[in-house]
Design a protein that fits this description.
The complex is a heterodimer of chains A (about 475) and B (about 190). Chain A has about 475 residues and is of the alpha+beta class. Chain A has helices at about 30-45, 50-100, 200-205, 215-225; strands spanning about 5, 20-25, 25-30, 105-110, 130, 160-165, 170-175, 240-255, 280, 285-295, 300-325, 335-345, 350-360, 365-370, 375-395, 395, 405, 415-430, 430-440, 455-470. In chain A, strands 8, 9, 10, 11, 12, 13, 14, 15, 16, 17, 18, 19 and 20 form a 13-stranded antiparallel beta sheet that branches. In chain A, strands 4-6-7-5 form a 4-stranded antiparallel beta sheet, with no helix packed on it. Chain A has a 3-stranded antiparallel beta sheet with strand order 1-2-3. With about 190 residues, chain B is an all-alpha fold. Chain B has helices spanning about 5-10, 15-35, 40-55, 65-85, 90, 95-100, 115-125, 125-135, 140-150, 155-175, 180-190, and one strand spanning about 175-180. The chains are: A alpha+beta (about 475), B mainly alpha (about 190). The interface between A and B is large, with 51 and 57 residues. Strand 1 (about 5) of chain A pairs antiparallel with strand 1 (about 175-180) of chain B, so a sheet runs across the interface.
Chain lengths: ~475, ~190
C-alpha cells in the first residue's frame, strides 16, 4: 500500500514541505524524509544566554588578563621590596665606610631623631658601657646600622653608640648626646648590633671586670681632634602605607560627536544619552599599598599598587530575544550586532543590570601636609593612576538606545585615573593612622574608541590607612 | 564584517571578531546541541565547550570547505563526547527498551514548525535520537557513526530504522505528517513544480 505524507499545515508549505514522501511503512523515500528532517532542523535556531559567551570570553581572555595583572602586582611588590633592601644596604655601606676612617678611635652612631640635636655641643659621655663582642664580623644585611627614627631599637634618642677598635659597643648615656667620632680601625669589622626587639639591658650587660668607666676627658680630646663624621639626626624619609576604602561609583555618558562615519544604526533621541539611561551607584572597594618618600617635612611623593572593584546598577527590562546593533567609529567594521533579551525602555519585567570592573593600578602622586604637628596633621594628596582592567562584566547600550548587550571585548584594557584625597592623620606609637574622603576620576572612556558612547566613572570613598616608617 | 575578516580576526585572537563569529553561528549551533542534549542547560554547556574548541583550533581550518560546516563538525563531536562522558548515552542505547517505548500523544509539545519537529526528535530515546541526528540531519554515514559512538555499523543502521519508525509515529500523532489520498499528492506535486 502506498501512503503519502506531507505536512498538516498546507498554507505554510514550502518546497521542503511539499516533499510529500511516498512512504510505505518501513519502505518509503528515505531521502525525502531525511531532507525534510534536515531542513526543519536547520530552520530551528536558539539564542544562547549571555552566560555562554561570558564563559567563553573568560576562558579565552580572562586567564590572560589575570595573569598579566598578577605579574604586574608581583613586579610591583618585588620592586618595592628590592628598593627597600637597596636603601637599607646602602645605609649599611655608609656605616661601614665610616668605620674605615683611619686613626679614629671611636665610631659613634647617633641614634637621635631630633633635628635640634645638630645644634648641640659635642658629646660628653657620662656613662660608658661596653658590650661584649663575641663575633668579629657583621652581617650587613642582617644587622644594618641605622640611625633613623623607628628602626633603631637599641639606641634611644639620648644615647649614642661607640664602637672601639677592640670591637666593643658603648652606649653613651647623655641627655645632649647626639653624635660622633670615629673608630681606629685596622680591623674593619663592626660589632654586631642586636636585631630590633632585643632588650636593651641584655645588650648592656657588662661582663665582670670589663666595664669601663669613661669620663669626659677620656673621649673629648679624641672627639675634638679626630672626628670622622658628624651625623645630624635625620628624620625618617621612607614610609610604607596600607589602605582600604569603600567606594561608590557614578558614571557619565557622552555621545561621540566627532565621528565622521555613517552607521546604519543611529539613535533618534537627541544628543544627551544621559536622559535615556537610568543608573544607580553601588558599593565597591579599593585597597592597596604605597611607598612614600619624604622630600621635606611638608611634602612627600609616593608610588604603589592598588586594586579597585567598581560597579553600578543599570535599570532595564527583560524582553524576548531580539537583535541589537552597535555602530562603530570604524569604517571597516561599521556595525556590531548581537542578540539580547534586555531592553532599556520597555519590556516584560524590570531588570537590574550590574556593570562591574576589576582594575589594578599604580598610584603615583604627591602628599602635602597642610596643618598640624607631629601627632595630628591635616594632609592632602593627589596624583595619577595608570590602570589595567583585569576583568569586566558590563552591558553596553545599543546605538538606538533600545537594548543593552554584553560586549566585554569592547572594554578598554588600559586607562588612566586621577585621584584626590584629604585626610586627618594621627601618630600613635610607630604607626600613623589616617582617615578622610577621596575622589577618583577616570580620564579615558571605559570602552574602546570604536564604541561611540563614552563612559567615565567617578568614584567617592572614605579612605582608611596606616603608615609605618621604613627608615 | 565579512567571513574572511572574522577569520583573520579570530586567528589573531581578536575578541571583537570572536564575538562576531559567535553571534553569527551560535543560534544554529545551539539548536544542534539542543537536539543532542537532555535539556537547554546541557546544550549551552556543550555550545560553550564547542566554541572554545573552535576558537582554540581555528588555525587548523584550511579553507577547504564551508566554515560553518567546520564549526558544525566540532560542535557535533563535542556533543557526542559529552554524551559519552556522561554515560547517559550508553545506558540509553538499549534497543529492547527503546522499541518497547510507547509514545504518548500528550508528551508531544504543542509548538510550531521547525521547533515542533525538533521537539519531536527530542522525544526519542537518546540512543535513537543521536543516530538519527547524525545520519539524517548531520549527514554522517553509518560507518562514521559506528566509529563515533563505538558501535557496529549494523547497529547504527538498525537503530536508525527504529528511530525513524518511532519519529514517524510521533509526527503522525502530533499531526505534523498526515496521510492523504494519492490525488492530493499529485496536486501538491504540481504546485511544487
Amino acid at each position: 500500500m502506498t501512503r503519502i505524507w506531507y505536512t498538516s499545515k498546507n498554507q505554510q508549505l514550502t518546497s521542503v514541505h511539499k516533499i510529500p514522501c511516498l512512504m510505505d511503512r518501513n519502505f518509503y523515500n528515505n531521502d525525502d524524509f531525511e531532507e525534510f528532517l534536515k531542513q526543519k532542523a536547520d530552520q530551528h535556531k536558539m539564542y544562547p544566554s549571555d552566560r555562554v559567551w561570558n564563559n567563553i570570553y573568560s576562558s579565552l581572555h580572562g586567564r590572560r588578563r589575570w595573569m598579566i595583572g598578577g605579574f604586574a602586582l608581583l613586579f610591583l611588590f618585588s620592586s618595592l621590596f628590592i628598593g627597600r633592601q637597596a636603601v637599607l644596604s646602602n645605609y649599611t655601606r655608609v656605616a661601614t665606610q665610616i668605620n674605615k676612617v683611619p686613626a679614629s678611635p671611636f665610631l659613634a652612631i647617633n641614634a637621635g631623631n631630633d633635628k635640634n640635636q645638630t645644634k648641640r655641643p659635642l658629646p660628653v659621655a657620662t656613662d660608658l658601657q661596653p658590650v661584649k663582642n663575641n663575633n668579629n664580623s657583621i652581617d650587613e644585611q642582617a644587622a644594618p646600622l641605622t640611625g633613623s627614627e623607628g628602626s633603631n631599637n637599641i639606641l634611644s634618642e639620648d644615647r649614642a653608640a661607640i664602637i672601639t677598635p677592640e670591637k666593643e659597643l658603648f652606649i653613651i648615656k647623655n641627655d645632649n648626646a647626639p653624635v660622633v667620632t670615629a673608630p681606629a680601625a685596622t680591623d674593619h669589622h663592626l660589632t654586631p648590633i642586636p636585631t630590633p626587639g632585643t632588650e636593651l639591658h641584655e645588650i648592656l650587660e657588662p661582663e665582670a671586670g670589663k666595664t669601663k668607666q669613661a669620663n669626659n676627658t677620656d673621649i673629648l680630646p679624641l672627639a675634638k681632634n679626630k672626628t670622622a663624621a658628624i651625623h645630624p639626626a635625620k628624620p625618617a624619609s621612607l614610609f610604607i602605607q596600607f589602605y582600604a576604602s569603600p567606594i561608590i561609583s557614578y558614571r557619565r555618558l557622552y555621545n561621540d560627536a566627532q565621528t565622521g562615519y555613517t552607521a546604519p544604526v543611529s539613535a533618534n533621541y537627541g544628543d544627551n544619552i544621559n536622559k535615556y539611561v537610568h543608573h544607580k551607584p553601588a558599593l565597591g572597594f579599593e585597597a592597596g599599598s604605597k611607598i612614600q618618600y619624604k622630600l621635606s617635612s611638608n611634602l612627600s611623593v609616593y608610588a604603589g599598587a592598588q586594586l579597585n572593584y567598581s560597579r553600578y546598577y543599570v535599570d532595564a527590562y527583560k524582553f524576548h530575544v531580539e537583535k541589537a546593533s552597535i555602530a562603530l567609529n570604524d569604517s571597516r567594521l561599521d556595525t556590531l550586532s548581537g542578540y539580547t533579551d534586555i531592553r532599556n525602555f520597555s519590556g516584560y519585567s524590570p531588570e537590574q543590570l550590574q556593570n562591574q570592573y576589576w582594575q589594578l593600578s599604580v598610584p603615583l602622586g604627591i602628599e602635602i601636609k597642610l596643618l598640624g604637628n607631629k601627632k595630628l596633621q591635616l594632609n592632602v594628596a593627589g596624583g595619577i593612576q595608570p590602570t589595567f582592567l583585569v576583568s569586566s562584566n558590563s552591558y553596553l547600550i545599543s546605538s538606538d538606545y533600545k537594548n543593552y548587550i554584553q560586549r566585554p571585548d569592547m572594554a578598554r584594557s588600559f586607562n588612566v585615573h586621577t585621584n584626590f584625597e584629604a585626610f586627618l592623620s594621627y601618630q600613635m606609637g610607630g604607626i600613623r593612622w589616617q582617615l578622610g574622603p577621596q575622589f577618583r576620576s577616570q580620564l579615558l572612556s571605559s570602552y574602546s574608541t570604536q564604541y561611540r558612547v563614552r563612559e567615565y566613572l567617578t568614584e567617592f570613598g572614605i579612605k582608611f590607612g596606616i603608615t609605618k616608617s621604613l627608615r | 564584517m565579512t567571513e574572511e575578516s572574522i577569520l583573520k580576526g579570530c586567528l589573531s585572537n581578536d575578541a571583537v571578531a570572536q564575538k562576531e563569529l559567535y553571534n553569527r553561528y551560535s543560534p544554529k549551533m545551539l539548536a544542534v546541541c539542543y537536539r543532542f542534549a537532555h535539556n537547554r542547560e546541557d546544550a549551552e554547556d556543550m555550545l560553550q565547550e564547542g566554541f572554545i574548541k573552535v576558537f582554540s583550533q581555528i588555525h587548523t581550518f584550511r579553507n577547504q570547505g564551508a566554515f560553518e560546516g567546520w564549526i558544525r563538525r566540532i560542535i557535533v563531536h563535542t556533543c557526542i563526547n559529552n554524551l559519552k562522558k556522561n554515560r547517559k548515552f550508553n545506558e540509553s542505547v538499549d534497543l529492547i527498551h527503546a522499541t518497547a517505548m510507547q509514545v504518548r500523544e500528550e508528551s508531544v509539545p504543542s509548538i510550531v514548525q521547525a521547533k515542533q519537529v525538533v521537539e519531536c526528535i527530542r522525544i526519542l530515546p537518546i540512543g535513537y535520537r543521536t543516530v538519527l541526528n547524525l545520519y539524517a540531519i548531520e549527514g554522517y554515514s553509518h560507518r562514521e557513526i559506528g566509529s563515533m559512538l563505538d558501535i557496529e555499523e549494523s547497529t547504527s543502521r538498525s537503530q536508525y530504522t527504529r528511530a525513524k519508525q518511532m519519529l514517524e509515529d510521533i509526527l503522525i500523532k502530533k499531526k505534523i505528517l498526515q496521510q492523504q489520498p494519492a490525488k492530493k499528492m499529485n496536486m501538491l506535486s504540481s504546485f511544487g513544480s
